[in-house]
Amino acid sequence: MSVHFAGTTALVTGASSGLGAEFARVLAARGADLVLVARRLDRLEALARELETRHGITARILGADLGEPAAWARVRAFTDAEGVRVSTLVNNAGFATYGVLAETDPGRADEEVRLNVGALTALTRLYLPDLMSEGRGALVNVASTAAFQPVPSMAVYGATKAYVRSFTAAVAWETRATGLRVTALCPGATRTEFFDVVGSEDAKVGRYQSAGQVVRRAMRALDARRTPPVVVSGVANRVGAVLGRLAPERLGLPLTEALMGR
Description:
Strand order of the largest sheet: 3-2-1-4-5-6-7
Strand content: 5-15%
Number of domains: 1
Distance between the termini: 45 Å
Largest sheet: 7 strands, parallel
Radius of gyration: 18 Å
Shape: globular
Structural class: alpha/beta
Number of strands: 7
Number of helices: 9
CATH topology: Rossmann fold
CATH superfamily: NAD(P)-binding Rossmann-like Domain
């Protein structure tokens, strides 16, 4: 049975494109009002107009760079000022750097950790009491198949996503009696702007999925009687995730390095 979100509000970060925009479309189709957060305000405005016209929902937008810690509290201040109570939170904002760590720009690596880990953790903490009290929404933290093993050439990204997977599984356990559905979504290669930001498709492993396929997998997890704390999108990716967790690092690291094009 599909969960309906009518009468609730969902906050989606990184909502200007890719998985974030797809989550916004699916949640709006299920009746949720939206708070859309991203850096590119023009894209948010266009998406908000589209979804309000198509589904008759209310979509509020906030332009914010969540790689800056000051923006985390600003998101909460915005929803408070708008009188919005958030029932569903989708922490989708994030990016990756590609290359050996010694050659990675230190500022860019720091921003990667602030966005992928800091913003996700802060927003989860800021909204979790509301999510728990509502008990009819969801917390979706977007991780990656990179979360299941160390990733040479994407060392920072893989570590941030391992954090997201571990963090979300713990929060799912802590909130298990509240009715809140909590999951870490772990997609593999997805046709979004992800690799444009990375700057190379050498980091791609396996076949592409569409953003629609990934979000549909997440929604099936939320619709389940018991939402799994971690969900991997794609059969081949699920096999790879299992192997990544079981293989000794001395065997897994050379293979992962080869898959990364190094």
